[in-house]
Amino acid sequence: MKSNEFASMTDVELADKLASLKSELFNLRFAHATNSLANPMQLKTCKKDIAKVKTIIRERELGIAKAPTAQVKAAKKSTAKKAIKG
């Protein structure tokens, strides 16, 4: 995922995404250790995504970045739905 996609998530969504990425990393490491991982670059990608999420969380803690409001997210969803239909 791109950083701006992570930045558009709320704090709760980021925490959930971080937990899922950490479990994915564990599974990837396990698969790599048993030589059943088809693409070892998945490890690198997963680690980078974890770093992106942690960076955004930390920026919000420091006040550098702000979490999106519910109104902004609702507006983005409605525009996305219109783009899909149109």
Could you characterize the architecture of this molecule?
The protein has 86 residues and is an all-alpha fold. The protein has a single domain (3-85), classed as Helix Hairpins (Orthogonal Bundle). The chain contains 4 helices and no strands. α2 runs antiparallel to α3. The chain is globular. The chain starts with a helix and ends with a helix.
Topology:
Layout lengths: L2 H5 L3 H23 L7 H22 L7 H16 L1
Helix pairs in contact: 2-3
Give descriptors for this structure.
86 residues, mainly alpha, 4 helices
Class inferred from helices and paired strands: mainly alpha
**H/E order of the elements?**
HHHH
Q: Might you state the CATH topology name?
A: Helix Hairpins
- Number of distinct helices: 4
CATH class: Mainly Alpha
Total strand segments? 0
Shape: globular
Instruction: Specify the helix fraction band.
Output: over 70%
- What's the pLDDT, averaged over the residues? 87
- Runs with pLDDT <50, length 5+? none
Largest sheet: none
Structure described in brief:
The protein has helices spanning 3-7, 11-33, 41-62, 70-85.
